[in-house]
Request: fold
Amino acid sequence: MLHYTVELMKNLGPWGLFIHSFMDAVIFPIPAFVLQVSLSILDPEAALWLATIGYIACMLGTPFGYMIGQFAGKAVLNKILKKEWIDAATKLFQKNGETAILIGSFTPIPFKVFTILSGALRFPLWKLIAYAAFGRAVKFYVVGILFYMYGRAAAGMAKDVSLYVFLGAIPLLAIYLYYKKRKAKKAEASEENEQVDAESKNEKEQGNS
Reply:
C-alpha cells in the first residue's frame, strides 16, 4: 500500500515530491529521499529544482509534525515506525536536542521521528525549525547537486549519500558541541562567581551593621 502510494506520487512529478516531502515531516513512514532520487533519475537537469521543492515542503510540514507530537505524544510513532528508530531518536534527544535534529536530518531515520518527538518532549519549535532548515537543506541539495552534475550516473552515489553527509557532518557537530559545552561551563563559572561575590557583600554588610 505504501509503495503504491509512492508510485502514485511519482506519477504526479514535482507535485508528488512536494506532497511526499510534506508528509515525510508529518507522518508518512517512507522518506522523501526515495521519490527525490526516482524523479532526479528521470530528469537530472531538474534535480536542483526538485531539491528546492522537497526542501520547502519539508519545512512547511515540520510544524505540523511538531503539533502531532504535542497532542498525541510518542503514541503515534509507535504505531507507524520501528521501535529501534524511536528509541535511538529519543536517546539522542535526551542527550542534546539540537544535535538530535541535526543528526536526524542526515540519517536514514525518517525525519518525522524528530519532528514528532520535538513536540512530545516540548522542544522549542523555533529551534526545531532553525536546525531542521540547515540539516534538511544539506540532505536535499547534496542529492540535487549530485544528479545535476553527474546525471543518471549519480543514482549509485545517491544511495550512500546519507552516510557520506553524516560522516562529513561529524567533525562539524563535534566542534559545535565542544564550543557549546565550553560556553555552558563559562556561564556556570560566572554564575558561581556572582553568587560568591553576593555572599561576600552580604557578609560585609552584616559585619558593618
Remarks:
- The two ends are 81 Å apart (CA to CA).
